[in-house]
Amino acid sequence: MMKKYTIKDIAQLAGVSKGTIDRVIHNRGNVAKDVENKVKRLLEDINYQPNLIARNLKNNRIYQIGALLPDPKKDAYWEVCTDGINQALSEFSAFDIRLHTMLFDPTDTESFIKSHQQLMTSAPDIILMVPLFYKEAKSVLKNYEEAGIQVCTFNNQIEVSKANFIGQDLYQSGRVAAKLLHTIADKGDMAIIHIDEKYKNAVHMQEKERGFKSYFDDLSGFQDHILKCKIRYTETEDKLRAFLINNSNLKGVFVTNSKAFHVARLLETENKNHIKLVGYDLLAENVNYLKVGVIDFLIHQNPRQQAYLGLKFLIEHLVFEKQIPNKFLLPIDIINSENVTPFLRD
Question: In whole angstroms, what is the distance from residue 286 CA to residue 300 CA?
Fold first, then answer.
């Protein structure tokens, strides 16, 4: 077990008084800069955490946290985020944390703006947010910055913002998808399919596409074509069927979000088992097609862990004044029919 250091222990290790340690921990000043730096390095080395419960009982503070998230009833991908958020809240149940969650339609920018405006009425100290729409998210993040509100984003990153980010390297995940398809279908055309989101306003899709294309651009000897298809939910089956008919040399498909099951359903119905398929996320429909071999690989983005870490970092920032990582990248987990079961228990 990790040793729990007292103020006295730390003072002895640093060779300074307990009063000096106390002033550094609580940012009270009156400490020489070199001594302060020495103590801070020591605190980092021993991963020191003060008695947060005692501090909270003493200051009796109420922490207001806002969450701006896609509605899981509109897209099942976001359902597991609730589990991650509840886990973080449970771990800090000793504190008086008030979580105000506003849900928005992940296909509707007006819903996003309206939910943001409603969230601001709760006067949050800090915000957990999914910046799904690039243009609108930039504006919203600017509002938060001007209001002095610290924001932690997850799932996709708005590079021009100062907000912290938790998620995967989306460009690299696109390259991983390309490598997977190239390994199992080394000849024939490859298709990038974007389903049910406005591509021009979806940075996460653009980054995945950019990574996918870059892999084949770097690949010597690739003579086939990289195709692209953008599909709205209401036209999914008809447009996909027409796309398959018009591209007879198609051997691999990369779906850039959690909707790979739409493509899998059509490939199964049309007996197109020669076309390899890579997508994202462990939705029940995707997992079913993965197990029967219609989907070859899924890249697990772990939205539950993203939401959990985002809220955990925010709470630690409020109650412990701990710095939130500017960018925290999760591993790019490659899932197939043989290793999927343990990930379903996460």
Answer: 11
Residue 302 and residue 330 in contact, taking contact as beta carbons nearer than 8 Å: yes
Secondary structure (3-state) at 101: strand
With the CA atoms of 116, 133, 166 and 85 taken in that order, what torsion angle do they form, in degrees rounded to the nearest 10? 40
Q: Which two tokens stand for residue 343?
A: 């990930």
Element (H, E) at 195: strand 189-195
What is the side-by-side order of every strand in the sheet holding 164-167?
96-104, 62-70, 126-129, 150-154, 164-167, 327-329
Structure tokens at 5: 């250091």
Q: What's the predicted TM-score (pTM) here?
A: 0.82
Burial class (CB in 10 A: 0-12, 13-18, 19+), 265: middle
Look up residue 214 and give its DSSP letter: H
- Using the Cα atoms of residue 131, residue 134, residue 138 and residue 143 in order, give the sign of their dihedral: negative
* CA-derived radius of gyration, the chain: 24
Look up residue 28 and give its two tokens. Answer: 């009270």
Kindly report, residue by residue over 26-51, the tens digit of the pLDDT.
777 778 889 889 988 888 888 876 66
